[in-house]
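Dear colleagues,

As part of the handover before I leave the project, I'm documenting each prediction I ran so the next person doesn't have to rerun anything. This entry is a single chain, and its sequence is reproduced below.
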Amino acid sequence: MAVVDFEKREEIAYITINRPEARNAFDGEVTRLLMESFREFDADAALRVAILTGAGDKAFCAGADLKTFEGGGSRERQGGPALGITQVGGLLPHTVGTVSKPTIAAINGYCLAGGLEIAMACDIRIASETATFGCPEVKWNLLHGYGALRLPQAIPMAVAMEMMLTGEFIDAQEALRIGLVSKVVAPGELMAKAEEIAHKITANAPIAVRVTKELAYRGLSLPLEDGLRLYGAYSRIVYATEDTREGPRAFAEKRTPQFKGR
């Protein structure tokens, strides 16, 4: 049985970490397959949105499997070069976070350490009522590396620092209150809610969706004036497409637009 399942259903990619017996912790093989899955999703023109989740109801992902990354290295090679924990801590979430299309993390159960970093790399995060979040790396003399760079951008700095420096966990309602997730639903409704959001995205213009995502992330590190110049450049590209003619025409004709992605 594959430790990462990659399924395509119409315009949606379903990527599932499939190690429920290990709380979906990632080892070298899981890391490699997750990166391959997200790269394949990004390269497939027929796919518009990816939903990432964990198998079972106990964990989304409990982070790196420390037994296989003992001492900062890896004891396994499984089809490729060994990946150390420092590589995984940056390379895996960076791969997830740099795909050009929208990604949704459907978080069930434990979402800890590197698992939280993978979730942070996704554009939208929704959680089951049973979800638990935390970055306990400091308890084991490890770094919440990618997360330390991204968490303070997503939630208030003082809250992020308390999570990272104490290593304590928070529940789903607290995650919702601080803005770490956008929705909390009953466990049995998690994937349905993720699919509902995904279908709303796929109903929109694909070029505008992708450019909006890029503009939002680029804007995090740009002064407003530079961001506005970038917006102007992107606007000229988007407004020159066939879909920009189709959108206003469909609005005027009171019909659903038929976007072609060009």
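DSSP finds ten helices and ten strands in the chain. The longest helix spans residues 28-43.

All the best with the project,
I.
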